[in-house]
Amino acid sequence: MRSCPECNYTRGWKLADGRYKCRRCGRRYKWTSVWNSSRLTEATKRRLLEFFVLGVPIYRMRFRVEVSKPAAQRFFRLIRAVLAFEEECRIAFEGAVECDETAFGGHRKGKRGWGAAGKIIVLGILQRNGMVRVFPVQGRKGSEVIKLVREHTKPGSLYYTDDWQAYGSLAVRGDHIVVRKEAGRPRGRAHINGIEGFWSYAKHWLYPYRGVPRKTFHLFLGEISFRFNHRNKDIFPLIYKLLRRTDYNKIHQTLVRNH
Fold first, then answer.
1. I want to staple 98 with a disulfide (CB 3.0 to 4.6 A). Which of 105, 111, 131, 195 is the partner?
2. Total structural domains within the chain
């Protein structure tokens, strides 16, 4: 939605030069939606959005759209930035929450596990029977992981985690249940199957892309979490509406972030 960058007021006069003047503070500003920031034709953008919703990689549609590969890549990157920005605006979770980490990256020679070279560690926070949020973390540092959990969950929540010692401090913030496994299966009724199911979902979506650049990996995570959180809906009209109402300047920091 269009709003003044000074006072966030949503009403303004449109000036002859294409800018807007805020009715509250008088600030003059430019506003361009993400959809209009692309110079592609309306028909081409709709066609690309259809392929994006279906999860078609760019290399598989080179004979289906009359647009260059860099132009299609930029448009897809804009879509992912909007979805990542939308996911960042979610309110903190409460109630029963599952927390877990996993590593993304192809098979490589050398050390295995958390110290493997070239892997990206991702923290996932899932509200039972609800939404999920994911964050790339540097080197699986306990302090960073707990900071994210505290920022994106409300006090008094019921935390389900594995037996990593970094999660021990969550017992002060709310109820904490440690899930222990035997032969890869949870021992008892406590489990974190929800977030582990999301990891399978996420890696399934990333597999056809034949590798994802590290500098834009956070955008792919935003896309996957958006898809998961709206898995029972047709996301084409949802994404189209977001592209039309989101200010291009607001997604700039999300677009260029480098993890």
1. 195
2. 2
